[in-house]
Specification:
The protein has one domain. The chain contains 13 helices and 5 strands. Helix 3 packs across helix 9, helix 6 packs across helix 10 and helix 11 packs antiparallel against helix 12. The protein is globular, with a radius of gyration of 19 Å.
């Protein structure tokens, strides 16, 4: 091994070891606490945040597709969604709690059962999903799943696979608005891998286990979809990823690993939340 290779290898090891020094590295029920993979070494947190901001810009310039509720006009709805988000972030399980933005916006589309979270922690929840669910724990389970995608840096990993490290870094540092916009559009159309979806399900349980919610929130969402016969493409990620029955079983298994604590569902305050929406 020549000196240049040795030096590069040393830099990569230093980057990996110094990326975040606090927090455990392994959770016996959910898996690796810290994100793993190439993003820890070659895509910085600032570049993750940059991808997130580019996606936010893409969303905000397209109000027809993403009609965002104004927080000043619907303060009660936003107080509720931020309270739920804070409960999840304060669970002790979110690795990048203090590094990412964790900003929430509600999209007014009653026919869409979905939520998503961009790199850097920009969370979007559709009114259709909020109105479809029965209690706060179900929504918290879905939000925990989406927060996990950002916290585990799944989008960055997928972008590295699509573009390659050098091309992705070049786009993020090159300042070309067109290239950045295309990258953001690709992020919005991103499909996560089966392993990403499984990991996000597990960490949703981990996050909620540190709150007063029933940690099986995502399980109840999938059970509701199964009961309604909506196990195909609504929401879109169900069409190409582990089937809902498998995910219900996996979520239950992780919950049991944590001790089978039964939390609360907060039905009444969720009804008030739904009533505050247009």
């Amino acid at each position: 091994m020549n000196k240049i290779t040795i030096s590069l290898f040393s830099i990569l090891l230093i980057t990996a070891s110094c990326s975040k020094e606090s927090g455990p590295t392994e959770d016996k029920c959910a898996g690796k606490f810290a994100p793993s993979g190439v993003t820890n070494l070659l895509i910085s947190l600032n570049q993750d945040k940059q991808m997130g901001l580019a996606t936010v810009a893409e969303i905000e310039k397209n109000p027809t597709e993403f009609p965002i509720l104004d927080s000043a006009s619907y303060p009660v709805a936003y107080r509720n969604i931020y309270r739920m988000t804070k409960n999840i972030l304060d669970s002790g399980g979110v690795y990048y709690k203090d590094e990412f933005a964790w900003r929430v916006r509600i999209i007014k589309k009653d026919d869409v059962l979905n939520a998503f979270c961009t790199p850097g922690g920009y969370i979007y929840v559709y009114t259709g999903l909020i109105k479809y669910l029965d209690n706060e724990t179900q929504l918290a389970g879905v939000m925990g799943h989406e927060i996990a995608h950002a916290d585990k840096r799944h989008s960055a990993n997928q972008m590295v696979k699509q573009y390659g490290v050098s091309s992705l870094v070049s786009i993020l540092t090159g300042g070309d608005p067109g290239a950045i916009s295309t990258l953001a559009s690709n992020l919005l159309a991103l499909s996560f891998s089966r392993s990403d979806e499984t990991e996000a399900d597990k960490f949703s349980v981990k996050y909620l286990n540190g709150t007063s919610y029933d940690a099986r929130g995502a399980k109840y969402f999938f059970e509701k979809l199964i009961a309604a016969g909506q196990t195909g493409g609504t929401p879109a990620f169900l069409s190409t990823h582990p089937n809902p029955e498998t995910r219900v079983a996996d979520i239950t298994s992780v919950w049991e690993c944590y001790g089978s604590k039964v939390g609360q569902t907060f039905d009444a305050q969720y009804m008030a939340f739904k009533a505050s929406l247009p």
